[in-house]
Structure formats: C-alpha cells, structure tokens
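Escalated from tier 1: succinic acid holo job.
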Amino acid sequence: MSALIPRPRLVLAPGAVHVPGWLTPEQQRELVVACRDWATGPVPIRHTELPAGGVMSVRTVCIGWHWQPYRYTRTAGDVNGARVAEFPDWLVELGRSALVAAYLDPAAGDGYTPDTALINFYDDQARMGMHQDKDEKSTAPVVSLSIGDSCVFRFGNTTNRNKPYTDLELASGDLFVFGGPSRFAYHGVPRVLPGTGDPDTGLAAGRLNITLRVTGLT
Ligand code: SIN
Ligand code: MN
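Tier 2 regenerated the structure:
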C-alpha cells in the first residue's frame, strides 16, 4: 500500500538506515510463500526457549544456521535435531541489493554473503526486548525485512539497552540495515500494530521479520 504521507529514507545513526517500502508487493508475496515453506520444516517454526526459563513470544525459524540462545549450529538440537534448510542464493542477492539501497553505494553489497536468516513471526501480543545481535563472529551488516502488520521498532545505542533510543514504525516492505558503527546497537520491538498489514501480501494477520546475517562460522 503506498503511503499518503511519503516516508523518506532515513539514516538514524552512522551505518543504521531505514528504507521504507523497499520490497515490492510481489517480493513480499514471494517471501511470505518462502517463509511459510521454511516454517513447516525441516525444522518447524517454534517459540524459542530461553536459558533462564520461559519462551520468546515471537515464533522463529532459521535457515542456513540455526540460532538458539546464544549460539549458531547447523542442526536444531533444541527443536527436532534436523539440519536447517539451505540458505538460497536468491536471498544472498536480495541482501546485497538491500545494502546498495540502504547505503546508496553501488559497491555496498560487494562480498556480502549472508549465511543465516532468522525469520520471526509476531502475533498481536508478541514483542522483543532490547538486545544486541552479537552471536555472529562477523561485523558484516544485519539486513532486516518486514512484512505484514507494522510495528514499533526501537533502535538504541551500542552501550546499553536504555535511552537514548529512537522509536520508529517498520511497515510492510520496509528495509532496515544496521552495520558499521551501528552493527552492535541494541534494538527491540515493543509492540506490533494489529490490523495494519495488507492481506495481499499473503499474510492475513501478524508481522514477519527476516534478518539476514553473516555468522562468520564455517
Ligand atoms: C530482531 O531483532 O532479531 C528482530 C527485529 C524485528 O523484528 O524487527
Ligand atoms: Mn536482533
């Protein structure tokens, strides 16, 4: 859906860029189809268990490498022991073009080879506390793609989970990249905005977020 009020590309901090409406409706539909498939297996989507007890409110499925707090493995020992789905070449290409769009530099995607994606599904109640993505052994950027309901995305500082932070809305099709000096910034999702998504994406309700990352593992 095209916004009545234009939402311009925004550099929040060095290396942290929001590109509203970057994915076309067709790309969003294709990603929803792909994520639905990955959600069924070989490792099914699930609420990740936390070492301190409890489970995450989002449901997650991973491809390329499996993430569980706080490490990556090829097989999902905390789910069903299966090896996760391969990370497809087309998603590497999408990651590279995301960096070009975010950094407005035709060379920004050169050599970027994400090898894992965490696919998170948020229902109306799901949220994600402030955290850093720091289980990767690489400082390559994280590429975040959102589909479905909008959310409030909180983008903070690299020192702690508290202020200063900026709250912005991530809507369907939005790209957010955090790399460079912002790569280890704290971030989270305080709430989803139910009913804001367009069912034409193939997602009748809820929010899908896909983060592409380089694990630095072999
Ligand atoms: C994440 O931090 O891994 C997900 C962020 C989001 O859902 O936008
Ligand atoms: Mn994260």
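The helical segments are 25-40, 89-103.
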